Amino acid sequence: MTSMKQTIDCTDQEWDRREKLAYCYRLVDFFGWTETIFNHISLRLPDHHYLVNPFGLNYSEVTPANLLKVDLEGNKAVPSEFDANPAGFALHSAVHGAREDIQCLIHTHTTPISAVAQKQAGFDHNNFYGAQLFGRVAYHDFEGITLFDDEKARMLSSLGSKHVLVLRNHGVAVGERSVETAFFLLWTVQRAAEIQCQAASMQGEETVLANEVRQRCADLTAMLIREGAFADRFFNAMVRKMHEEKGASW
Questions:
Q1: Distance CA 156, CA 94 (A)
Q2: For the whole model, what pTM was predicted?
Q3: Count of CB atoms within 10 A of residue 191's CB?
Q4: Where is the Class II aldolase/adducin N-terminal domain (predicted)?
């Protein structure tokens, strides 16, 4: 770890963020949520730059040292042999430039999430994980591949003050105050989508939860994340599990 840090010039604080973000990429790969070399996970830095993956690398190849440091226009702040995927700038730079409370932003389009995103009703909030998302999900209409600056304002308007943005007919972006809380939120969204898709394939009437129950679940989850080390413990446990099954990370 120390020798790898010596390959780039950064503060200890930035290195710690690089490590956490690299672990997040590896975990998304470990859980099978990648879209080959596409999609992005970004982490805001105190100097208004953010870290993002080098385009062309598998998530399993991302390391703390090879993460790109870019400004809000997508320009590299530190030289690198790699470039970033331009499809990530419109979404990630927009959110990082406007939402101080979102430090880490994760974009995926796994099969269950994309299936739910294609449905007009979106998430139904009737399973254990979906209930935890009640009142926390925003929706943005599909405009094509997110390459253009003019869509930034519309995406931010769609997101509002929420932390989950369903990109209709596409996928999802989740953002939170840290890598750990963003990863836990993604896991919750993924599980909600998996169960909703499975339930939709089965015969029988749905058991619809009352809004009061949904809100209680969402409030309790938010409290656990806000007041304790709930998400940190989950993230660290998943990193240990990954190490046990796949060995050293880098």
A1: 7
A2: 0.95
A3: 16
A4: 19-197
